[in-house]
From TrEMBL:
It is a multi-pass membrane protein. Residues 48-269 form the ABC transmembrane type-2 domain. One of its GO terms (molecular function) is ABC-type transporter activity. It comes from Gloeocapsopsis dulcis AAB1 = 1H9. One of its GO terms (cellular component) is plasma membrane. It is found in: Cell inner membrane; Cell membrane. Pfam families: ABC2_membrane. The chain crosses the membrane at residues 47-69, 81-100, 121-149, 155-178, 190-212, 243-266. The keyword Transport applies. This is Transport permease protein. Belongs to the ABC-2 integral membrane protein family. One of its GO terms (biological process) is lipopolysaccharide transport.
Length: 277
């Protein structure tokens, strides 16, 4: 087939895999459209609008501070307990929101997927971007807490973008796995909320991971979000916050595995989406 028109779609036999990644760039406008549409849908018809992205993490921070900081008297690593909690709440909320949104993204866009060709990976990836907007909005609370407690971050805050990239890899990797599985097994619509809720309890959001006994630290780091959260706290809080480097490297390695395997499984299942969905 000859390409006589730049807008004409050409699918050459045996070359779909090599062209797939080029198509991601070719369909970047669709990616922007889906992300912007989801942002509008999320906030347009809500009673309190974008304030919802502030209220939910703030109330969770208040509860965790009361339970772990005031009642359990857990150590705060030399920083005000609300800041300790919120520095972990940011990456956790981003991961949890991205997981919930991306896992349902293919189902909610079933009409689009079943009618036209485009790289399906765009759909869950755009859902993760929407969650990143919530992440940016929630960051306002952290800035307000720092101002309230006169907390000044150290030079380590400059490394924060690196840990944001790691959080992105974890969110996209897990999101690709669950979005592909949700197409074939609709049970995952019930499993994902449980994973998010359970993950909150086993991740060091309300407390510092330093309270975990040394003999269990490496095993605890098998939860990839432990490394992500510890990295955020190290970058934002500095000072007495120390990273358990063995566990951190293990978590980062698992995030990389999750990201690569997520792309592999999504690509493997992608050919059947239009038929199954």
């Amino acid at each position: 087939m000859m390409n006589h028109n730049q807008t004409e779609l050409v699918i050459e036999a045996g070359k779909t895999e090599s062209q797939y990644w080029k198509d991601l760039l070719r369909y970047k406008d669709l990616f922007y459209f889906l992300a912007w549409r989801d942002i509008l849908v999320r906030y347009k018809q809500t009673f309190i609008g974008i304030a919802w992205a502030l209220i939910r993490p703030f109330l969770t921070m208040v509860v965790f501070t009361a339970v772990f900081g005031q009642l359990a008297k857990l150590p705060s690593e030399g920083v005000p307990y609300p800041i300790l909690v919120f520095a972990a709440m940011l990456p956790w909320q981003f991961f949890a929101n991205a997981l919930s949104e991306s896992s349902n993204s293919l189902i909610t866009n079933a009409n689009l997927i079943s009618k036209v060709y485009f790289p399906r990976l765009i759909v869950p990836a755009s859902a993760v971007i929407v969650s990143f907007v919530d992440f940016m909005v929630s960051g306002i609370i952290l800035l307000a807490l720092m101002a309230w407690y006169n907390f000044v971050p150290s030079w380590q805050i400059l490394t924060l973008p690196l840990f944001i990239v790691i959080a992105f890899a974890a969110a996209i990797g897990a999101g690709l796995w669950l979005s592909a599985l949700n197409v074939k097994y609709r049970d995952f619509r019930y499993i994902v909320p449980f994973i998010v809720q359970f993950g909150l309890y086993i991740s060091p959001v309300g407390f510092s991971s330093n309270i975990v006994p040394d003999k269990w630290r490496l095993i605890y780091s098998l939860n990839p979000m432990v490394g992500v959260i510890d990295g955020f706290r190290w970058a934002i809080l500095g000072g007495e916050i120390q990273i358990y480097w063995s566990g951190f490297m293990l978590s980062v390695g698992l995030v990389a595995l999750l990201f690569i395997s997520g792309i592999w499984y999504f690509r493997k299942m992608e050919r059947s989406f239009a038929d199954v969905i």
